[in-house]
Amino acid sequence: MTIYRADTAWLPQGWEGEAVLEVRDGCFAAVDAERTAAAAQPLGRWVLPGMPNLHSHAFQRAMAGLAERQTHPEDSFWTWRETMYAFAGRVGPDELRAIAAQLYVEMLEAGYTQVCEFHYLHHQPDAQPYADAAAMSLALIEAAQETGIGLTLLPTLYQTGGFDGRPLAERQRRFGHATDAYLALVQRLRALEGPNLRVGVALHSLRAVPQAALQAVLDSGLVDAAPIHIHIAEQLGEVQDCLALRNARPVEWLLANAPVDARWTLVHATHLTEQETAALAASGAVAGLCPTTEANLGDGLFPLKSYLDAGGVLGIGSDSHISVSPVEELRWLEYGQRLVTRHRNIAVSESSSSVGETLWGDALFGGARAAGLALGALEAGARADLIVLDENAAQLAGRGREHLLDSWLFSGNRNLVKDVMVNGRWCVRDGRHPAREAIAARYAAAIAAIGAV
């Protein structure tokens, strides 16, 4: 057991003064704000739980910036997707391992301690399985193990090219699985679970997973206590197609046809009616919000205020990784609402008038639920994940508890994360991952091998 002391710690009830944290076997054995321990190792002035990143497509980190030239006067998500397909076709297990390791180092240094990997890049570019059908999944697991980040792996079912059941397009075929083969993959990966690895399931979207396949996954027994993630209602075109062919909007249809509860994370859920917003909040599912990617793709804005007022659960993800920063995700989650309402300080609650405290606390809670693990809190029984901020940073000068999180989230772009622990192990010290240079060199070599799109 190791005993640490935080000068000020973000506990489930908010900021507390000096707290003693006992770490045993990778978990917090005790967290006590009323105890002193002379032999405790000092952590620093500002100590918080690490943030879960609830939505990631790791390979897309390497194409950030490659889709920012106009290809059509009506460029949209759908034209961006063609660039993404072209890039994905060049990525194999070795490249994916190198890209994911680089990404995971960046996540750790930014304060993310768990990542939910929504993984659909399963087969070779010609759609033939690798010699080991789990090769791409194993590349992600190996990258997480090397860097130390916690991983919720979400192998993704992808079967059709639209709500009308059309076959997958040529460049989508490497994503596809028959239902039995998909369930076998999940079963195999489930056997690898440990403190830093959770295996759930993902349904790519309603347009890519027919109702019969969705039901087969739900009936398989593999999701009874596991996270279930799905892309939904991200684009207006998706909503219109669902209405035309299923006579219901995507979230409306899912809530009526699946047992949506706290196991579920609905990623994006951008386009909701008032009724859908209230029903989603009541379900206990997590709204998985990715503001920087949603802005980059021109998706639209989630109805944040009405969702929070209805008691909805949310978390954040970096998705396509055009930004890898929980600060920027939370900042733009609030700023989008300010732009559309022309008011300030939108994301607040009855328990806190602070935007920073509201969003940080909500994202910790929702992210932990989406990850399917006991984390996101400095409390006994949770995995021992924490971050320590740079108390000497200019942005935090003269700040007390009342303004600390607001000052961190809304005052510039310098990364203030100093130290990061995951599962009781230090993964970042003084702002640097110990394998940063070696992993960056391997990443650069992999990108050179992939070549230009």
Briefly characterize the structure.
The chain has 453 residues and is of the alpha/beta class. The protein has 14 helices and 17 strands.
Give a description of the structure.
InterPro entries: Amidohydro-rel (IPR006680), HutF (IPR010252), Metal-dep_hydrolase_composite (IPR011059), Metal_Hydrolase (IPR032466), Metallo-dep_hydrolases (IPR051607). Keywords: Hydrolase, Metal-binding, Zinc. It comes from Tahibacter harae. Its EC number is 3.5.3.13. With 453 residues, the chain is of the alpha/beta class. The protein folds into two domains: 2-49 and 378-432, Urease, subunit C, domain 1 (Roll), CATH 2.30.40.10; 53-371, Alpha-Beta Barrel (TIM Barrel). Helices cover 36% and strands 21% of the residues. It has 14 helices and 17 strands. The strands form two sheets. Strands 6, 7, 8, 9, 10, 11, 12, 13 and 14 form a nine-stranded parallel sheet that branches. Helix 2 (93-110) crosses helix 14 and helix 12 packs across helix 13. The longest helix has 18 residues, at 93-110. The model has no long low-confidence stretch (mean pLDDT 96).
Write down the CATH class of the largest domain. Alpha Beta
Major sheet summary line: 9 strands, parallel
**How would you classify the helix and strand content by structural class?**
alpha/beta
| Uncertain stretches of 5 or more adjacent residues | none
First and last CA, distance: 50 Å
CATH architecture of the largest domain: Alpha-Beta Barrel
Number of helices: 14
Morphology call: globular
**What is the fold named in CATH at topology level of the largest domain?**
TIM Barrel
How large, in whole angstroms, is the Cα Rg?
21 Å
Quantity of strands, as a count:
17
Query: What's the CATH superfamily of the largest domain, by name?
Result: Metal-dependent hydrolases
Mean pLDDT: 96
The percent of residues in helical segments reads: 25-40%
Estimated share of beta-strand residues: 15-25%
The total tally of domains equals 2
